[in-house]
Design brief:
The structure holds two protein chains of two kinds.
Chain A: H1 13-27, E1 31-47, E2 50-67, E3 73-78, H2 83-96, H3 129-144, E4 150-169, E5 174-190, E6 198-206, H4 214-226, E7 231-232, E8 237-243, H5 245-254, H6 261-266, E9 285-289, E10 312-316, E11 319-320, H7 327-333, E12 354-358, H8 366-369, E13 383-389, H9 392-395, E14 396-397, E15 402-413, E16 416-420, E17 423-428, H10 429-433, E18 436-446, E19 449-462
Parallel strand pairs in A: 7-16, 8-13, 12-19
Antiparallel strand pairs in A: 1-2, 1-4, 2-3, 4-5, 5-6, 8-19, 9-10, 9-12, 10-11, 13-15, 14-15, 15-16, 15-17, 17-19, 18-19
Helix pairs in contact in A: 1-2, 3-4
Chain B: H1 8-15, H2 26-40, E1 45-61, E2 64-82, E3 85-91, H3 96-109, E4 129-130, H4 138-141, H5 145-162, E5 166-184, E6 189-207, E7 210-221, H6 226-229, H7 232-246, E8 250-251, E9 255-261, H8 268-273, H9 280-285, E10 305-308, E11 329-334, E12 337-338, H10 345-351, E13 359-360, E14 369-370, E15 374-377, H11 384-389, E16 393-405, E17 410-422, E18 425-431, E19 434-438, H12 439-442, E20 446-449, E21 454-462, E22 465-473, E23 476-484
Parallel strand pairs in B: 4-6, 8-18, 9-16, 15-22
Antiparallel strand pairs in B: 1-2, 1-5, 2-3, 5-6, 6-7, 9-23, 10-11, 10-15, 11-12, 13-14, 16-17, 17-18, 17-19, 19-23, 20-23, 21-22
Helix pairs in contact in B: 5-7
Classes of the chains: A alpha+beta, B alpha+beta.
Chain lengths: 465, 486
């Protein structure tokens, strides 16, 4: 008889606070804060109808910050939530505080007790791992049956997670968020006789495994893989390119230091303090960070410092409007924290979920696309559609603004798309943002954000032809 | 050299001994019932991996320490095999009840149930093979916080002394101590302590519109003295020299060229282009073109490639793998002929390739998989100058960035510092190059190997997490490869 998974993650915030307060008092630590999380996960992978691996995990973790008598901050992280573990973490953090950064001392977020946004995040009951296995096996079989050339689905997985995270501090802040999420990914490998193997796939997220759009994931993975079967090399040169929503979001994410106050203060961003108000992109581009978007599955209600998550305008009309902030960077800029902090000895700052699209009231660059209307590709070379980018960790130099990235995509000539065998796209992000011709179609929801197709002119493509 | 006793956070945290050290004989009485129970439930094999870890990360920026990040933890990974299937559960709960619950969950994944009575098919654990006995003092022998932060600040100071137009100077240090205990129902019972330290210097040079960001990282295993012996002056000169050169470098012109790759981290080409495809995890997934090619040529006859875990102090060396097996020297390719694959326990069961001591994982949270250790192309007969002189027009890659390989065997990696070769001579520096290709096509094009083999530390992320590895090679020449640029 099948049963549902009985293990679900939970933390008792009040018990944890009392234990820590007691330990801190004994150690003479008066000011502290803590981020904690625990989770239970189950996941499956399959290989041509057989269970390849089934995994389960119970995880717990805390990061503890203390302020010493000189006001300096130290931290320690541990997976040991026992009294002994907390005591050891407290002692470690206090010792580390002797080396705290005198020049920039973090403080509690002034918004750590502000009201939190209300998120519609239904908690789902985990499915049994055997149900996950059956679901994934069916999905794999379905995908393998979509085309004779699809021989395997080498990268696949169906996972579900139940998690609990909290933030508490010695001034009485107490944040807690329980969440259930599930994910499915299918990456197929297809090969036709005498030709090179091709691969593509799709991902889906939901609040529970039973809610995943399995059919949609199979369909998208099949379409993308089959669309790359007939390939040809591309000649090296400059092309007008159309980024898929996923590819453009990946690129913007890789250069998010443009909008990151931490990176600005550290001198590793292309932006400076004075850059606010500067024209960074074409006038019809609007970019927001919005972790609260209803389509952002698993959105965090608060950041690592307890600051509520909120929607923040980064580019409006192509003009740089705001930076992403932690408590410390916000204080340095004289603004409020924006809810984008992590927790650490040096607090990191990062984006949540991007919304990219036309500036309200603008045409979204429609006029820029006119010369491509009616099936014309604008020039003899054709149009390059960039479906997905690879190796962003290696090919992006964020502090220089340059990128050189392998991609999967198509060359469209005379209205007919043909997959590109192997190629890289290279350029400078500042130039690219000002070379956007326009947006095409409605914005698409992806795991990383919301974005339409984005047309850019004059990018360098290196191919094998 | 004066060895200082540890002070501050390291000493304080290490004095506390919760949870119990894995060398404690009491673990036998916890583990044997688990292994016996799993076997009695019908599992072919049960494996328990226990881990304690102690990490320290430091960051210096300009002339200040800006981050001190200690972390410690413990956990277990329990894996159960039935035929070619397996179930794996990880947990931070090392109590007997917690481990039993994890075992029950792993067994349940395979449709097995822990019986009330056990003992069938398990004769108890043998004597412990204790590789850690001589390593108990390693953590205490590492530099104290005061000493480590001092060394990093020395590094950023030396950058300032040797660099020009430096907008950002950074030094970083990571020390990872790990104690592991592996017990399995096939009689595996072994303990080890690992110590990895790495230190790096990074700069961002800027002058007007010209910018160059560059870094170098050094790493060793099992050497508490590593940070003390770090040649900070040479490291700073190396980084500053490269940054100065690359600051005003032009972007490389795209195309197909012959390429000469420098030694040390140039070995990332073999790691990405071929090494991953010689892991049995790739055979299992049917994602390697070499699966049926043992005994056949897959590379130019100039190429002999080796993976081993034995080189003293190398980042990828280990006394035993994460499945309790001692590492080997595995010749992967000899004179262009494929010899064998890297295999772990699951790989052996599923593909038939015998284990090579290559079962590795980032932590208890990952099941072990066949992974590389110290992987390199063997030295050849030429001098580096002969390789460069053989190229009329091409690219010399002095320093490589990271790279990756996809499910179709397509690889790519970034060139951090490159120079054009014209008529056999290095000329102007160029930046922004990406080398892309297909393993099956590029391996036969490695036509010349020089006599200057050197290794370099790196991190490799794959199915079983991020692990410490070494890449390496002598200078090599690739007859033609696609260079992405502008």
């Amino acid at each position: 008889m099948e049963t549902t998974e009985s293990l679900t993650a939970s933390l008792d915030a009040e018990v944890l606070r009392q234990r820590l307060a007691s330990l801190a008092l004994a150690e003479g630590v008066r000011r502290w804060d803590l981020g904690a999380s625990c989770s239970t996960d189950t996941s499956v992978q399959v290989d041509r109808g057989e269970a390849k691996q089934m995994k389960g995990a119970q995880r717990s973790a805390i990061t503890l910050r203390v302020w010493n008598d000189d006001g300096l901050v130290g931290i320690t992280s541990t997976s040991d939530l026992s009294d002994a573990g907390l005591a050891r973490a407290l002692a470690g953090a206090r010792d580390a505080s002797s080396y705290g950064n005198v020049d920039e001392i973090p403080d509690f977020s002034p918004l750590a007790t502000a009201p939190l946004p209300v998120l519609e995040q239904p908690l789902s009951t985990p499915l049994s791992i055997l149900t996950l296995l059956d679901t994934l096996r069916d999905a794999e079989r379905d995908l393998l049956g979509r085309h004779p050339a699809i021989g395997t689905v080498p990268y696949n997985g169906l996972a579900q997670r139940s998690s609990d995270r909290l933030y508490i501090n010695s001034d009485g802040a107490c944040r807690q968020q329980r969440l259930s999420t599930a994910s499915l990914y299918l990456y197929a490998r297809a090969e036709e006789t005498g030709r090179k193997p091709r691969s593509s796939g799709a991902v889906r997220l939901a609040y529970g495994a039973a809610d995943l759009d399995v059919a949609g994931c199979v369909q998208e993975a099949a379409e993308r893989t089959i669309a790359h079967l007939d390939y040809a090399p591309i000649a090296t040169g400059r092309y007008t390119c159309v980024f898929s929503p996923e590819a453009f979001l990946d690129l913007i994410g890789a250069f998010s230091s443009l909008f990151n106050a931490r990176a600005v203060l550290d001198g590793v961003s292309l932006s400076r303090r004075e850059s606010l108000g500067e024209q960074l992109a074409v006038p019809f581009l609007s970019l927001h960070d919005n972790g609260l978007h209803p389509a952002n599955v698993g959105a965090a209600a608060f950041d690592g410092e307890g600051t509520p998550t909120r929607r923040l305008s980064l580019l409006e009309g192509g003009v740089l409007r705001h930076f992403l902030h932690s408590e410390a960077t916000a204080r340095a800029f004289g603004v409020a924290p924006s809810g984008h902090a992590g927790m650490g000895a040096k607090v990191s700052v990062g984006p949540d979920w991007f919304e990219i699209g036309p500036t309200p009231g603008s045409s979204g660059g429609a006029s820029g696309l006119d010369r491509f209307a009616a099936g014309s590709c604008g020039d003899d070379r054709g149009l390059v559609v960039i479906d997905s980018l690879s190796a962003l960790h290696a090919g992006v130099k964020a502090s220089q603004g340059s990128f050189s990235l392998p991609f999967d995509g198509w060359l469209v000539q005379d209205g007919i798309p043909r997959s590109i065998e192997a190629a890289t796209v290279a350029g400078d992000i500042r130039t690219l943002l000002k070379a956007i011709l326009g947006f095409e179609g409605p914005a698409k929801v992806t795991p990383d954000g919301l974005c339409p197709h984005v047309w850019v002119e004059g990018l360098s493509i290196t191919g094998d032809a | 050299m004066v060895v200082s006793p540890p002070t501050g956070a390291l000493a304080a945290t290490e004095r506390s001994s919760s949870p119990v050290a894995l060398g404690d004989p009491a673990w036998r009485t916890v583990l044997e019932p688990l292994l016996a129970g799993g076997r009695s439930a019908g599992a072919d094999l049960v494996e328990v991996f226990l881990e304690r870890s102690d990490h320290l990360g430091l960051l210096a920026e300009q002339d200040s320490i800006t981050s001190v990040s200690p972390a410690f933890g413990a956990g277990a990974g329990l894996r159960v095999f039935l035929g070619e299937r397996d179930g794996f559960v990880s947990t931070n709960d090392l109590s007997a009840a917690g481990l039993r619950a994890a075992l029950e969950q792993a067994l349940g994944m395979l449709g097995l149930v822990l019986p009330v009575r056990s003992g069938v098919g398990f004769d108890g654990l043998p004597s412990l093979r204790d590789f850690a006995a001589s390593k108990e003092g390693w953590l205490q022998a590492c530099p104290s916080l005061a000493e480590a932060t001092g060394r990093l600040l020395e590094g950023t100071d030396r950058l300032q002394a040797h660099g020009q137009h430096l907008q950002v100077r950074r030094g970083s240090y990571a020390r990872d101590w790990q104690e592991v205990l592996v017990a399995a129902s096939d009689g595996t019972f072994a303990r080890d302590v690992r110590l990895h330290q790495s230190v790096g210097l990074n700069v961002l040079a800027a002058d007007g519109d010209h910018r160059a960001s560059l870094g170098r990282r050094y790493g060793t295993s099992d050497s508490p003295e590593d940070l003390r012996q770090w040649d900070v002056e040479a490291a700073a000169i190396d980084v500053c020299s490269s940054a100065g050169t690359m600051l005003r470098a032009d972007y490389v012109e795209a195309g197909q060229f012959p390429v000469v790759l420098a030694n040390r981290f140039g070995g990332v080409i073999f790691h990405e282009a071929c090494g991953h495809l010689l892991e049995t995890t790739q055979v299992e997934r049917a994602t390697t073109p070499f699966a049926e090619m043992v005994g056949e040529p897959i590379a130019h006859e100039a190429v002999t490639a080796i993976d081993e875990g034995l080189t003293s102090g190398a980042f990828g060396s280990l006394a035993m793998d994460d499945e309790g097996m001692e590492p080997q020297r595995t010749v992967l390719i000899e004179n262009g002929i494929l010899q064998r694959f890297l295999s772990d326990r699951a790989g052996e069961r599923r593909t038939g390739h015998p284990r090579t001591g290559s079962g590795r994982r980032q932590s208890h949270a990952f099941a072990a998989a066949s992974r590389m250790r110290n992987t390199y192309i063997a030295a050849g007969p030429h001098t580096p100058e002969q390789l460069i002189a053989s190229v009329d027009r091409g690219l010399y890659c002095k320093s490589m960035g990271g790279g990756s390989v996809g499910p179709t065997g397509q690889f790519n990696f970034a060139v951090e510092e490159g120079y054009l070769i014209d008529n056999g001579v290095l000329t102007k520096p160029v930046k922004g190059a990406t080398l892309i290709g297909d393993a099956k096509e590029v391996m036969p094009r490695i036509s010349m190997c020089a006599n200057d083999l050197e290794l370099a530390a790196g991190f490799c992320g794959s199915v079983s997490g991020s692990i410490f590895v070494t890449v390496g090679q002598p200078h090599i020449k690739v007859d033609t490869i696609t260079v992405g640029g502008r």
